[in-house]
């Protein structure tokens, strides 16, 4: 029983750490305000769910989700990324809501508010009783791949341009770089990565529904970034651990103690407070960005 | 279809609800330079403050709206004092302010849900209905339209004729110059938050009276409000007025087209989203915005 809670929390930490790293690539290193992270998370989840119901494999579903998320990311990025930062925030937040409405309203396609049940779980028959353990391994293998990939990107020449765009976009433009192309590319990469974590969620729960993809998911990921310290991938993983232990913990606690406040409300209120308090008193988060790594 | 009186009435009512909310949003945006996402919850807060006065205290909704204006204005000031002012002092950028506004929104919305529950509630109002040219309009909707127009005129007068209004414009156009001219910018900011919040509060009461109250009341219409602000040109008072009514018509006629095409009317918010995208592609500075805004 307790072990199940621990393994469940570990899976959620892993899934959200991938989301946090993908947001870190977009915001931490490039200052793109993606307030619609949940849209790409949901795209991955729904693509994997729908495809695997028709017999596609785990990998095929995940790859298709990444592709569709990349295309959607491109679609959102094109009209907005050349404009002010706040336009992207407004457009992505709206995009996330429209996509949720799509999953909610197109009953013929997504089964609407009832959601999709019985999503096949990869290798279930092989691991059977130890399935949770296997899933933890699967999630963490994926997380490590995403982490290494993200580190590789930010320490590459491409990544250095991203950081330069963040710090002084006009200076980068003066060097003749098309900053918009760089922003679009990293937005597409971030969107695909978010899709991977969505696929993992769908196969883990074997059930998804539109009410799992409210904007609060996006802001929970933002809290991980703000707490952990943006522009530091280990920091945002630490942020994911803290926020998820707290979120899962309050669910766990609910079964044992009577809280004066409805736990789901308390959770969101505390997420909001953490966000504000860290911005006010620890704007760099718990782990700061490492400066000039790889240069000296 | 374009002669459908009912659609025109509904459009004007929707526009009248959006206009105050959008003016509140755009003046804060203009002066403080960031998209205040907690505006959504200021709207909701106002609606529930009026609920206390109207239902819990049993008074007329008019006093509810008055209380909503004052209390939501005060809440706007409180969010500035407790969060945004400190961020300004820390030298934080507009990005931190936007994220903080999300945090404030989460705290407010869930606190409202904790207090009044997730289910819908209604104001205690009589609904007399008038028939005009084959369409019907409720007494409350007539009040919504008239009060909006009255408030727009008052604001217009304030921005053009009073010292306070001119100082607000001065602070938003050039804060350093305004300060050098002896304007107390922090005091002006208080007024900006008070009026911006107050208008959001009244907009919330209108929306609540026209539909119902839920903790997501403000969130449901904040995207439309942003679409209005960007279509009108960020910071433009007159642009917001025109854009609010354009959006009112676009949403109501759009929904009617959706149902003619037997597409779910649940896609109503997508209409605002499409307008938003079209504006960003065609004319990112909006109808009346300055070119450098984009």
Throw out a few tags for this protein.
heterodimer; A: 296 residues; two-stranded antiparallel sheet; 13 helices; globular; B: mainly alpha; 2 strands
Strand content of chain B: under 5%
Identify the overall geometry of chain A. Answer: globular
Number of strands of chain B: 2
N- and C-termini, Cα separation of chain B: 36 Å
Tally of separate domains of chain A: 1
Q: Mean pLDDT of chain B, as a whole number?
A: 92
- The amount of helix of chain A comes to over 70%
Low-confidence stretches of chain B: none
Describe the fold and architecture.
The complex is a heterodimer of chains A (296) and B (294). Chain A has 296 residues and is mainly α. In chain A, helix 1 packs parallel to helix 7. In chain A, strands 1-2 form a two-stranded antiparallel sheet. Chain A starts with a helix and ends in a 15-residue tail after the last helix. Chain A is built from 13 helices and two strands, in the order αααααβαααααβααα. Chain A has one domain. By secondary structure, chain B is mostly helical. Chain B has a domain of 191 residues. Helix content of chain B is 74%, strand content 3%. Chain B contains eleven helices and two strands; from the N terminus they run H-H-H-H-E-E-H-H-H-H-H-H-H. Chain B has a two-stranded antiparallel sheet with strand order 1-2. In chain B, 50% of the residues are buried. Classes of the chains: A mainly alpha (296), B mainly alpha (294).
What's the quick description here?
With 296 residues, chain A is mainly α. Chain A contains 13 helices and 2 strands. Chain A starts with a helix and ends in a 15-residue tail after the last helix.
Question: Which secondary structure elements does this structure contain, and how are they paired or packed?
Answer:
The complex is a heterodimer of chains A (296) and B (294).
Chain A: H1 2-28, H2 37-53, H3 58-80, H4 85-105, H5 107-110, E1 116-117, H6 124-127, H7 131-154, H8 157-167, H9 169-174, H10 179-205, E2 207-208, H11 215-228, H12 233-254, H13 263-281
Antiparallel strand pairs in A: 1-2
Chain B: H1 5-32, H2 39-56, H3 61-89, H4 94-116, E1 129-132, E2 135-138, H5 139-161, H6 163-173, H7 175-180, H8 185-210, H9 217-232, H10 237-260, H11 268-282
Antiparallel strand pairs in B: 1-2
Helix pairs in contact in B: 1-5, 1-8, 1-9, 1-10, 2-3, 2-4, 2-8, 2-9, 3-4, 3-8, 5-6, 6-8, 9-10, 9-11, 10-11
């Amino acid at each position: 029983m307790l072990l199940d809670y621990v393994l469940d929390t570990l899976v959620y930490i892993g899934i959200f750490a991938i989301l946090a790293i993908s947001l870190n690539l977009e915001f931490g290193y490039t200052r793109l305000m993606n307030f619609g992270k949940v849209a790409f998370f949901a795209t991955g989840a729904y693509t994997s769910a729908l495809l695997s119901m028709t017999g596609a494999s785990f990998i095929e579903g995940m790859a298709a989700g990444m592709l569709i998320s990349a295309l959607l990311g491109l679609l959102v990025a094109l009209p907005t990324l050349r404009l002010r930062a706040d336009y992207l925030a407004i457009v992505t937040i709206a995009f996330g809501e429209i996509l949720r409405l799509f999953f909610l309203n197109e009953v013929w396609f997504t089964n609407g508010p009832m959601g999709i049940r019985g999503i096949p779980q990869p290798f279930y028959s092989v691991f059977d009783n130890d399935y949770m353990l296997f899933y933890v391994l699967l999630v963490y293998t994926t997380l490590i791949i995403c982490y290494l990939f993200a580190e590789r990107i930010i320490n590459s020449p491409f990544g250095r341009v991203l950081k330069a765009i963040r710090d002084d976009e006009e200076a980068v433009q003066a060097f003749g770089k098309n900053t918009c192309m760089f922003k679009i590319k990293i937005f597409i990469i971030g969107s695909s990565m978010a899709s991977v974590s969505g696929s993992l969620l769908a196969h883990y729960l074997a059930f998804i529904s539109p009410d799992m993809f409210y904007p609060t998911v996006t802001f929970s990921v933002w809290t991980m970034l703000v707490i952990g310290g943006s522009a530091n991938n280990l920091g945002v993983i630490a942020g994911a651990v803290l926020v998820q232990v707290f979120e899962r913990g309050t669910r766990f606690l609910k079964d044992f103690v009577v809280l004066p406040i409805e736990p789901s409300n308390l959770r969101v209120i505390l997420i909001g407070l953490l966000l504000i308090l860290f911005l006010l008193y620890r704007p760099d988060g718990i782990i700061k960005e490492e400066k000039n790594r790889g240069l000296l | 279809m374009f002669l459908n009186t009912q659609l025109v009435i509904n459009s004007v009512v929707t526009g009248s609800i959006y206009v105050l909310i959008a003016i509140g949003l755009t003046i804060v945006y203009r002066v403080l330079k960031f998209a205040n996402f907690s505006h959504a919850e200021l709207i909701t807060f106002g609606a529930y403050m009026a609920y206390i006065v109207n239902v819990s205290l049993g008074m007329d909704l008019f006093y509810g709206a008055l209380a909503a204006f004052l209390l939501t204005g005060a809440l706007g000031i409180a969010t500035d004092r407790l969060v945004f002012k400190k961020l300004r002092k820390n030298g934080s950028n507009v990005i931190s302010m936007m994220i903080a506004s999300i945090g404030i929104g989460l705290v407010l919305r869930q606190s409202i849900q904790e207090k009044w529950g997730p289910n819908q509630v209604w104001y205690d109002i009589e609904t007399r209905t008038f028939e005009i040219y084959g369409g019907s309009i409720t007494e409350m909707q007539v009040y919504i339209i008239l009060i909006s127009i009255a408030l727009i005129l008052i604001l217009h007068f304030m921005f053009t004729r009073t010292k306070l209004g001119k100082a607000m414009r001065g602070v938003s156009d050039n804060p350093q110059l305004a300060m050098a001219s002896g304007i107390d910018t922090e005091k002006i900011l208080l007024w900006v938050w008070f009026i911006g919040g107050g208008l959001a509060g009244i907009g919330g009461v209108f929306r609540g009276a026209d539909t119902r109250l839920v903790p997501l009341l403000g969130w449901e219409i904040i995207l439309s409000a942003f679409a209005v602000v960007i279509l009108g040109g960020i910071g433009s008072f007159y642009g917001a007025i025109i854009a609010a009514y354009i959006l009112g018509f676009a949403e109501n006629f759009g929904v009617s087209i959706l149902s003619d095409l037997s597409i779910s009317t649940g896609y109503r918010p997508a209409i605002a989203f499409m307008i938003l995208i079209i504006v960003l592609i065609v004319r990112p500075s909006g109808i009346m915005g300055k070119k450098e805004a984009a």
